[in-house]
Amino acid sequence: MASLSSILQTPTSIVSSSSTSNSLNLQQKGFPFLVKVDRRPERKRSFVLKSALDEVNVLDPPPPPSENAKSELIASLKLKLLSIVSGLNRGLAASEDDIQKADAASKELEAVAGPVDLSSDLDKLQGRWKLIYSSAFSSRTLGGSRPGPPTGRLLPITLGQVFQRIDVLSKDFDNIVELELGAPWPLPPLEVTATLAHKFELLGSANIKITFEKTSVKTKGNLSQLPPLELPRIPDALRPPSNTGSGEFEVTFVDSDTRITRGDRGELRVFVIS
Its GO biological process terms (predicted)? Predict the structure, then answer.
């Protein structure tokens, strides 16, 4: 058996992994096993790094999306929404499932784009906007969630294009509706354009309040030479409680060519610039 002094005098033979002769000497002197310690710096660093990763999982936060990536995502979500509502005849042909899909697609677009602030950029509303979808039209009345003439056989009214004409300087807000009124045979149907004139004001950053002023009707086609007819306004005392002559809605998304609004009665509307 090796003495304690002989062991202390040969520490390098125990820790060296490169000397074969020293290893054999240790085994001949009675050591039943050989202890090998790898002291290469790179191995030690690898061991420490692996231990740290095994004990603590640290994930770096993902980088914020670039402006280009956000713009591409918004364009994709807009296309998705327009594809959903394009075949619904402005909402008149929408089923309950169609309404839910349009609402979900709108919310997805609104979430990515973020809140609208018109207080510093009201010019975004300027122009003539074409209505391509209204969730309220699924009620089968031209007034949507408000009282309006029904569509169908009892009163043959065909809804044409619907526009909103907004002037941010004069605060004019006109709803323009093209209608085709059925007439007894052999008379042709009567084509008219009804303009519901309003004034608007901005409430907060994205809420719009409109106040009704008057309605004028202009004939089209063979009768287009007739002057516009201004319909008398119903006195406020005779108005039903549901038709006060004013309304509010929130602009939840707007850019250079698309606008989404949500009305005070839950009505979702989608417009494109015309």
Answer: chloroplast organization
Cα distances (Å, whole numbers) of residue 62 to 59, 65, 70, 74, 177: 9, 9, 15, 20, 48
Query: Using CA atoms, how far apart are residues 247 and 200, in angstroms rounded to an integer?
Result: 10
Mean pLDDT of the chain: 79
pLDDT at 116: 97
pLDDT class for 138, splitting at 50, 70, 90?
A: confident
User: Which distant-in-sequence residues (6+ apart) come within 8 Å of 257 by Cβ?
Assistant: 272, 273
Give the list of residues 6+ apart from residue 127 with CB closer than 8 angstroms, or none.
Answer: 165, 166, 273, 274
pTM of the predicted model over 0.85: no
At residue 124, the pLDDT reads 96
CB atoms closer than 10 angstroms to residue 255:
14
**Which structural domains are found in the chain, ordered by start?**
4-55 (no CATH), 90-273 (2.40.128.280)
Q: Is 67 exposed, middle or buried (0-12, 13-18, 19+ CB in 10 A)?
A: exposed
**Residue range 254-260: mean pLDDT, rounded:** 97
- DSSP class of residue 25 equals H
| Token representation of residue 96 | 């309950």
DSSP element (H, E) containing 214:
strand 207-219
